[in-house]
Amino acid sequence: MIAGPVEQIFLGDDRIDHLPGYARGFAYGDGVFETMRVHRGTLPWWGVHFTRLANGLARLRIPVPDVGAMERALAELFADGADGAAKLIVSRGGIGRGYAPDVDALPLWRVSRHEIPPLPRPDGLVLRWCDTRLALQPALAGLKHCNRLEHVVARGEWSDPGIDEGLLRSIDGFVVCGTSANLFVLHGDRWATPRVDRCGIAGTCRAWLLSETGAAETRIDPAELETADAILLCNAVRGILPVARLEARAWAPHPAVADLRRRLARAHPAFDQEMA
Amino acid sequence: MIAGPVEQIFLGDDRIDHLPGYARGFAYGDGVFETMRVHRGTLPWWGVHFTRLANGLARLRIPVPDVGAMERALAELFADGADGAAKLIVSRGGIGRGYAPDVDALPLWRVSRHEIPPLPRPDGLVLRWCDTRLALQPALAGLKHCNRLEHVVARGEWSDPGIDEGLLRSIDGFVVCGTSANLFVLHGDRWATPRVDRCGIAGTCRAWLLSETGAAETRIDPAELETADAILLCNAVRGILPVARLEARAWAPHPAVADLRRRLARAHPAFDQEMA
């Protein structure tokens, strides 16, 4: 049971009751978003989420909402001190029809509160390859922007509850990510993760893992997953997710993954709670 | 002055007061749209717009709203018999967070009414090249979907009112379209237009011109615009737009463009009115 409002919507600093019909987020997906793990009403990684959000907004030339207003709105949603996930969408304001952006328009933004359903297989995900390929678009790559039809179409490829996630390749055949997670690949004692310079999202848990493991940011061929000693998925809501199987390839639990999960648990109290 | 409501919003067949905050159109741009010329309260090309809309929704597996409900909503917006433009957005319904599409969810859709501002240079547009390139994504190419950040970013490249439109190239360097128009190129008596199988939108006025001119759908190199005898832009709201200049290249008015404008005027009463 969630007590209190499950969303708040703002235009600039002003709370408003509804999304306006002319919202450019609705017309064009003209915005960026963050999905964040909430631990006892707090956002342990708010700083890195805010930094990424601000960078994304700067690249799209959308003004950044007042940081205090965002923090207050998120805190109010979780004033009961619960665990969960928070989503923050910041979209471009302006009332006009047509693509021309008003780079001075007050941003239209929304915070919402969500439950985290239990993972069906916490000890290791079952993955498939998606047929949908990610287009190469350096101008938008890395951003957690709201143009997500590729991910929607990819996630729509399967409804089998026995499959937990799908891996996406780029148009030119390299592995990029899961539909809602980044990917890390282990060979020996060397971690690697796909570059996000042409497609894909620069995830916050990915950033933590990069600094923690010194992983190489490279192009990864699908064949390199077959030969990997372990692979894992990660995102800011779920943390590190071990992978048990990708199509016919199976992996036993790997101590390096377990070690990273323990280190993440020390860095983020929500994941510590899960390890307990 | 617009009499009456300027928008109506529906969930399935039911009129609703506001966009819900959880709208997937707002979160992911998960929908398609049509922008249509209205002539004396009617939509002369409704049939082709509806067909394209239904095809786009089928490709994204979004249920098609009741055609009668859409027609009634559009007619109500223009019950005063005015001229203008109508916009119809049909987005995927469903309340869940996460990319997984509910392919059975009732669609969330909106119609809105807009004025058509006069063209600054009706005798010939002034164009620029955009730096923003269009990614190659065959799975979404041709669709008038709501993931339009590329067009927003491209249209944001200039604010000089002396520039009317920007031409977009694909990532691999071929000419595709204007930010809100399709492109046709004349060499001798042969028209050509960029294919929209990898990026770009299959416009309704483009379809009319294809059938009227027998234009070739090809890959077009930017250098072919330099050598062209004429180029034109087109869309469903503006009809056929002659081009006077692209960067340093200038064109005199061409009789073949004028002829096509006359033929379009006979096919669509709004453009007949403009020619009068």
TrEMBL record, chains A, B:
Reported cofactor(s): pyridoxal 5'-phosphate
Keywords, ordered alphabetically: Folate biosynthesis, Lyase, Pyridoxal phosphate
Gene3D superfamilies: 3.30.470.10, D-amino Acid Aminotransferase, subunit A, domain 2
InterPro entries hit by this protein: Aminodeoxychorismate_lyase_IV (IPR017824), Aminotrans_IV (IPR001544), Aminotransferase-like (IPR036038), BCAT-like_C (IPR043132), BCAT-like_N (IPR043131), Class-IV_PLP-Dep_Aminotrnsfr (IPR050571)
Main enzyme class: lyase
CDD domains hit by this protein: ADCL_like
One function term, GO molecular function aspect: 4-amino-4-deoxychorismate lyase activity
Annotated pathway: Cofactor biosynthesis; tetrahydrofolate biosynthesis; 4-aminobenzoate from chorismate: step 2/2
Keyword Lyase: yes
Catalyzed reactions: 4-amino-4-deoxychorismate = 4-aminobenzoate + pyruvate + H(+)
E.C. no: 4.1.3.38
Keyword Nucleus applies: no
Quaternary state and interactors: Homodimer.
Family under the similarity heading: Belongs to the class-IV pyridoxal-phosphate-dependent aminotransferase family.
Protein known as: Aminodeoxychorismate lyase
Origin species: Noviluteimonas lactosilytica
Phylogenetic lineage: Bacteria, Pseudomonadati, Pseudomonadota, Gammaproteobacteria, Lysobacterales
Gene behind this protein: pabC
